[in-house]
TrEMBL record:
Subcellular location: Nucleus
Domain HIT: 562-669
Keywords per UniProt: DNA-binding, Metal-binding, Nucleus, Zinc, Zinc-finger
InterPro entries: Histidine_triad_CS, HIT-like, HIT-like_sf, Macro_dom, Macro_dom-like, P-loop_NTPase, Znf-C2HE
Protein's name in the database: Macro domain-containing protein
One GO CC term on file: nucleus
One Gene Ontology term from the biological process aspect of the record: single strand break repair
Lineage: Eukaryota, Viridiplantae, Streptophyta, Embryophyta, Tracheophyta
A Gene Ontology molecular function term of the record: adenylylsulfatase activity
Sequence ranges assigned to domain Macro in this UniProt record: 328-528
Nucleus recorded as keyword: yes
Biased composition (Polar residues): 476-487
């Protein structure tokens, strides 16, 4: 684009037309930089009109810009209109500044959206205060409304710049303009005249609130925006390792095509479960970065497709992180799906609030004691999570071996849960090459690489167990369950089925009179309490007759109530606790002073027969929640002792754990089956179930109904009693120690003062 240096008419050799250059481009496209570079090298007198500074260094109005531009033209100066000017309406009044002595040009900085966002969020001290995470929202919104300028609007010349080479060419052209030089009219450089927006800006985030003063020159952008996800594929822009960089306030580095996050408001990238993890052992443990990056990429490649739609995010605090750079390069060489694995620069404890990245699971590079000591990631996570994480961690493990990981469900009271949407922390311990730290391997990288590989395997397996229990990977349909032809039952598992009960039924349910019809039709609360099988509800097959061991049970309509509560707890006012994983409720007909049910919210888990090794983390979560409630009750009454467990053959659909105090002081404990359902092998300790599933992939069920008709024996001294009243009288005074089988393996939960139970 050569300058038109045709001979000038006499009298115009020293003075050419003034030029109004309207810059068109999103924030971060380089408008201000363009002006500064031209003005710093051109001999033509220029004035830059910027709405961000028009009011004595502060943001002003469009009217002020128009007035200043007219004044500069009157003084014989050319003008840069440094605003976004992305739609025709915003440009119209500036185009009208043209007259016989002034041409109006447009320079369109139509650069890749990813590049504009990256520049915007990284910069600091911006005149319009548009920087950090909120910049992404503004840029996305503006690009959706972009209208490329046309000569028909009144421009004499339009220059389109779609990559850095185009920008440099335009800089050279305008920098070379002398006071008397002119440029040819026309439109130059546009590759796709019909393009309105850049490709890929088609999917939506949830609405995010952007402060009204986020940017003064937002071309009348509304304060409430719906930012879009950018998928810029322009080959002309090559970021480092062909991976574009993005940083919110916390910072993010994403491959091209990866979702961009916006800080502020209720924002999430999408609903995919996400694990954010630091590089294990490469900081304080001084593991070689090259070898560590090889192992990370190897393990990510192994697991990334096994995890369905889940995502893995490698996190580091520094933009200059060598481990991130190495991993990005090697991941690109392996063609690992950038939608499922990418890197993020920022604080792992503030990914959601500062960077807009929602990660339901984060990994902690822990120490072997699992204590909130030292510095780095470990101290940061424990500090951000508060005391709740330390307590929850102690419930899972007291130490950790190198190469191992432990999954810790994060209590809802933790700030990480409430503020950052983190539901689980996975502690993982890698190999140590630092002689100042325990278990140093003294540069034995054969063993070290094996341990580090095992650590990432344990980490990703733990993450897989979490998302499986949350139903994120399940693709199959639920089993069609038959209705019970005998009609509704009046009460199940201590859960009132109020929608199917009338007052007469309630009176009958509470009656002491039991006949054969009431036993068969009133349900199992009066007959057995909770969870005891009725022969009407079972098919001829035993639960374990199927090859896969799954339950072959026809559930009556009455037996669906617990399932309904688990799936829709918000509609039941008697629920004590609701989380993403479980629901907690009182047994409506408790068999002791304290009797709770902890019910998972996952589909496809009707009973223990359906549990497999992939549900292990869910079992632990249920156990943890039960422990939490038991400990709460112990604070209120230290004399109580609790046991957590399952009935081998439940009567209702939906797996659940009983949290029951061992006083058995309840008017609802009336029958032999009530007692035996909790004090024979029919009742399986939660800790034993977890151990069996961990070791063998399933629990051993003891659903022999003869267990329910055994003679009545005290659960402490094992003395026999002829009936329930005599048994109740005895247990109210018995102080014998519990059987060794219960005292071992933490089957009983009691206050510290009762740790030793004397005769």
């Amino acid at each position: 684009m050569d300058i038109d240096d045709a001979p000038k008419p006499k009298g115009e050799e020293t003075k050419g037309k003034q030029i109004v250059v309207i810059l068109v481009g999103a924030p971060g496209s380089g408008k201000s930089t363009f002006c500064e570079q031209v003005m710093g090298s051109s001999t033509r007198p220029w004035v830059r009109i910027c709405q961000d500074t028009i009011g004595n260094g502060k943001a002003g109005t469009k009217a002020q810009c128009l007035k200043s531009a007219a004044s500069a033209l009157k003084d014989g100066k050319s003008v840069f209109i440094d605003r976004c000017n992305l739609d025709r309406e915003q440009r119209a009044e500036f185009v009208k500044l043209s007259d016989p002595n002034a041409d109006v040009h447009a320079i369109v900085l139509d650069l890749p959206a990813m590049l504009c966002i990256s520049r915007s969020v990284k910069r600091s001290g911006h005149e319009g205060k548009l920087q950090g995470g909120k910049a992404a929202a503004v840029v996305n919104r503006m690009l959706q409304k972009k209208e490329l300028p046309k000569l028909s609007e009144g421009f004499t010349r339009i220059t389109f710049c779609q990559n850095e080479s185009d920008v440099q060419a335009a800089l050279n052209t305008y920098s070379a303009l002398g006071p008397s030089d002119t440029l040819p009219n026309g439109s130059f450089g546009q590759k796709n005249p019909d393009a309105k927006i850049q490709p890929g800006i088609m999917r939506f985030f949830k609405k995010a609130e952007v402060p009204a003063n986020a940017v003064s020159d937002a071309n009348s952008i509304q304060s409430s925006v719906s930012p879009q996800i950018i998928e810029e594929k322009d080959p002309s822009y090559k970021g480092p390792d062909n991976i574009s960089s993005f940083s919110g306030n916390a910072g993010m580095e994403l491959k091209e095509g990866e979702n961009l996050a916006v800080s502020g408001g209720d924002v999430s990238l999408n609903d995919a479960p996400t694990l954010a993890f630091p590089s294990i052992s490469t900081s304080d443990f001084q593991f070689n970065l090259e070898r560590a990056s090889d192992i990370i990429v190897e393990k990510v490649e192994e697991y990334v497709n096994k995890l369905g739609n889940a995502r893995l995010v490698l996190v580091d605090l520094s933009h200059r992180s060598k481990i991130l750079s190495l991993v990005k390069t090697k991941a690109a060489q392996k063609n690992i799906d950038s939608n499922k694995f990418f890197t993020f620069v920022g604080d792992i404890t503030q990914l959601y609030s500062e960077g807009g990245l929602r990660c339901n699971v984060i990994a902690n590079a822990a120490n072997w004691r699992l204590k909130p000591r030292g510095g780095g990631v470990n101290a940061a996570i424990f500090n951000a999570a508060g005391p709740a994480l330390e307590v929850a961690t102690k419930e899972q493990a007291i130490s950790l071996h190198p190469g191992k990981a432990v999954v810790v469900p994060l209590p809802s009271t933790s700030p990480l849960f409430s503020r950052q949407k983190v539901t689980h922390v996975i502690h993982v311990l890698g190999p140590n090459m630092n002689q100042q730290r325990p278990n140093c391997l003294n540069n034995d990288y054969i063993k070290g690489c094996q341990i580090l590989g095992d650590a990432y395997t344990s980490l990703f397996e733990g993450f897989a167990s979490i998302i499986r229990t949350q139903g994120k990977l399940a693709q199959g349909s639920n089993e069609n369950l038959e209705s019970n032809p005998s009609g509704p039952q009046e009460d199940i598992e201590g859960v009132s089925t109020k929608h199917s009960l009338n007052n007469d039924q309630k009176s009958k349910r509470d009656s002491e009179h039991d006949n054969d019809r009431s036993k068969r039709c009133k349900g199992l609360q009066d007959e057995v309490g909770t969870d005891i099988p009725d022969s009407r509800t079972r098919k001829v097959d035993k639960y374990n007759d199927k090859i896969d061991g799954s339950m072959t049970k026809a559930w009556g309509s009455w037996a669906q109530a617990l399932y309904d509560i688990a799936m829709h707890p918000e509609s039941h006012k008697d629920v004590l606790e609701i989380s993403d994983d479980v629901v907690v409720l009182n047994d409506l007909y408790p068999k002791a002073k304290r009797h709770l049910l902890v019910v998972p919210r996952s589909e496809g888990l009707n009973c223990l027969a359906d549990v497999r090794k992939e549900h292990l983390q869910l079992l632990r979560t249920m156990h943890d929640v039960g422990l939490k409630w038991a400990e709460k009750f112990l604070q209120e009454d230290a004399s109580l002792i609790f046991r957590l467990g399952y009935h081998s053959a439940p009567s209702m659909r939906q797996l659940h754990i009983h949290v029951i105090s061992q006083d058995f002081d309840s008017k609802h404990l009336k029958k032999k089956k009530h007692w035996n359902s909790f004090n024979t092998a029919f009742f399986l300790n939660s800790v034993d179930v977890i151990e069996e599933v961990s070791n063998h992939g399933r629990a051993t069920l003891r659903d022999d109904e003869s267990l329910l008709s055994m003679e009545l024996r005290c659960h402490r001294c094992r003395s026999a009693h002829p009936n329930i009243p005599r048994l109740k009288s005895h247990i109210s005074n018995c102080r014998a120690p519990f059987p060794p089988s219960l005292l071992q393996n933490f089957c009983l939960v009691l206050a510290p003062c009762n740790a030793v139970i004397d005769p």
